[in-house]
């Protein structure tokens, strides 16, 4: 799921032709600055995540339609993202083969729709998969807890490769406007190359802009930031 440098640069050329207000060279410079600082003398003893921070303007979350959209990035931004599958018998066997954590229907029934227990489950994992046969049963088994947490499971069929599905989920980010005009999404980590981070950042920004009612006119600011680093302004 990594992209080589040539393919990354081909994608970035496409972005330039899409009317972006950001030049690839300026964003590349910011990415290099972030990675140099994060991997320098003050390097932490964990892999820092790189976040894209967005400030919006000329939007009224109370009156304007709240947008929501997901996009798959060319490079996995959060390889350590914790995932659990809510599984039928066949998918339990598949999950065991790749050491993926799972919960059976019986496990879900034991939660008894208890709001605190469902909330605890939602906090325990970053994302969920669910066997296609179970997906319609999730609200009945767990109530609205996972949906409220923004973690309703992604369906997976028995014909899909489960390991590939994990990569897909870990590669996908979500932009969703709620009650405030600030957004933040993980777009990479500090062990990625300049080109990998750059490709993810540019695709994320261009996708976000496509969701906005007035495109770039709704963008107030864009920053990238590592977990422990300072924000670096892009726009």
Decide which structural class fits the backbone: alpha/beta
Basic shape: globular
Radius of gyration: 19 Å
* CATH fold descriptor of the largest domain: Ribulose 1,5 Bisphosphate Carboxylase/Oxygenase
Q: What's the CATH H-level homologous superfamily of the largest domain?
A: Ribosomal protein L1/L10, rRNA-binding domain
Strand proportion, as a percent range, falls in: 15-25%
Please write the string of helix (H) and strand (E) elements: HHEEEHEHHEHHEHEEHEE
Residue windows where pLDDT falls under 50 for at least 5 positions:
1-13
Major sheet attributes: 4 strands, antiparallel
In spatial order, strands of the major sheet run 8-1-9-10
- Total count of domains: 2
Structure summary, number of beta strands:
10
Helix content: 25-40%
On the 0 to 100 scale, the average pLDDT is: 92
- CATH class of the largest domain reads Alpha Beta
Q: What is the overall number of helices?
A: 9
Kindly, what is the distance between the CA atoms of the first and last residues, rounded to a whole number of angstroms?
28 Å
| CATH architecture term of the largest domain | 2-Layer Sandwich
Describe what you observe in this structure.
By secondary structure, the protein is α/β, with parallel strands linked by helices. It folds into two domains: 5-67 and 177-233, Ribulose 1,5 Bisphosphate Carboxylase/Oxygenase (2-Layer Sandwich), CATH 3.30.190.20; 83-162, 3-Layer(aba) Sandwich (Rossmann fold). It has helices at 5-16, 24-38, 89-97, 105-110, 115-124, 138-142, 145-148, 162-171, 194-211; strands at residues 49-56, 68-72, 83-86, 101-103, 127-131, 154-156, 172-176, 182-189, 219-226, 232-233. It has a four-stranded antiparallel sheet with strand order 8-1-9-10, covered by helices on one side. It has a four-stranded parallel sheet with strand order 4-3-5-6. A two-stranded antiparallel sheet has the order 2-7. Helix 1 packs parallel to helix 9 (194-211) and helix 2 packs across helix 9. The longest helix has 18 residues, at 194-211. The chain is globular. Residues 1-13 have low confidence and may be disordered.
